[in-house]
Amino acid sequence: MTSSQSEQLLPPGFDYYPQVMSLSKSISLYSYLCHQLEWQQPSIQVYGKHHRIPRMQCFIADKDVSYGYSKQTLANTPWPEPLLAMRRRLQQTYGHEFNALLANWYRNGHDKMGWHSDDEAELGPQPCIVSISLGAARKFKIKHKVTGTQQEILLKSGSCLVMHGDSQLYYQHALPVQAKVTGGRINLTFRTVGHERTKAYSSAHK
Predict the structure, then answer these.
(1) How far, in Å, CA of 5 to CA of 198, rounded?
(2) Any idea what DSSP says for residue 94?
(3) Which of 10, 132, 133, 196 is 20 to 30 A from 142 via CA?
């Protein structure tokens, strides 16, 4: 897996690489994961009411790793071999020991992710999160927490988005509804849970 140079200027802490795997390989992996992962659709509490999240998800991690958000702990499933191999390559590329992966499956353009930051305590103060996109291209929005300034990028199949440094401190991100998108998209977000294991991100590893 190789990273081509970022094609778009994004805020500090966000790097986008449009093709880290071929289109055919990314679509093949998308199809495999749709059928092989143990997808779940948990509920979260919003203003006292429980709602199922508008997407499917699967949390994959080492045996000793526990992680959650919105007051819920995610069920831990073991690494399938294709994702274990991908983890090894990403660790060599970015210099991080990724021990967890949160996979999100957006079944069509109506599935979404609201504004949020990946700032849970388990991820540490400056987490490095590597997101691989598979399947349909979807818009990804970034918003500054103070100024409200927004940027948008199209995440294509086989691309890689890296969030590092103070990206979670100063920005939120979201995947909005795109009603005209009929295809599905999976994004694989590799992360390190338990920040004592996290190494400093270095641009030399790009």
Answers:
(1) 24
(2) H
(3) 196
163-188 pLDDT per residue, tens: 999 999 999 999 999 999 999 999 99
- Total H helices, total E strands in the chain: 3, 15
The CATH number of the domain holding residue 79 is 2.60.120.590
Quick one: which of 56, 188, 29 has its CA closest to 113? 56
Would you tell me how many other CB atoms lie within 10 Å of the CB of residue 125?
Answer: 11
Assign 4 a pLDDT band (cuts: 50, 70, 90). Answer: very low
Domain containing residue 24 = 14-42+51-194
In a domain, 2, yes or no: no
Q: Which residues, including other chains, have CB under 8 Å from residue 54's CB and lie 6 or more apart?
A: 110, 111, 112, 113
Residues 152/140, Cβ–Cβ less than 8 Å? yes
User: Within a 10 A sphere around the Cβ of 71, how many other Cβ atoms?
Assistant: 7
Residue type (1 letter), 28: S
pLDDT digits (tens, 9 = 90+) for 5-35: 455 689 999 999 999 999 999 999 999 999 9
Please report, in angstroms and rounded to a whole number, the separation of the first and last CA atoms in the chain: 11
User: Which 3 state secondary structure label does DSSP give 186?
Assistant: strand
Nearest to 206 by CA among 162, 144, 152: 162
Instruction: Render pLDDT for 81-136 as a digit per residue (tens, 0 to 9).
Output: 999 999 999 999 999 999 999 999 999 999 999 999 999 889 999 999 999 999 99
**Whether the Cβ atoms of residue 100 and residue 192 lie closer than 8 Å to each other:** yes
